[in-house]
Amino acid sequence: MVLKYPEIPLHNNASELGARAQARERDVSLQNKTDEGTKAHDSLLTIMQTAKKLAVNSYHYICDRVGKRFLLPSLAQLIREKSLNCKSDGG
User: What is the model's pTM?
Assistant: First the structure.
């Protein structure tokens, strides 16, 4: 299948790898002091992991959003575009 459809990943545990990165980061940072801190930390890590999967520089993306420039497309928009491209390619 991979030779016929090279865009198909060799494994299907990308979500598991993302969750593992969050758990590893949480262990290394010795937890947060508040629930809000945990949520903020997890949100930032989710943005960084999603940007990485979409080949977007997470630092530039976060600076674009915090600076309210909105020059870069949103991650949601990139996900939709990628999904549409996969469907049009037959995947």
Answer: 0.63
| Distance of alpha carbon 26 from alpha carbon 32, whole angstroms | 8
Check if the beta carbon of residue 21 is closer than 8 Å to that of residue 42.
no
Contact criterion met (CB below 8 Å) for 46 and 75 = no
Q: What is the pLDDT of residue 34?
A: 84
Answer yes or no: is pLDDT of 91 > 60: no
Distances (CA, A) of 39 to 35, 42, 49, 81: 6, 5, 15, 28
Domain ranges of the chain: 14-88
What type of residue sits at position 83?
Answer: S
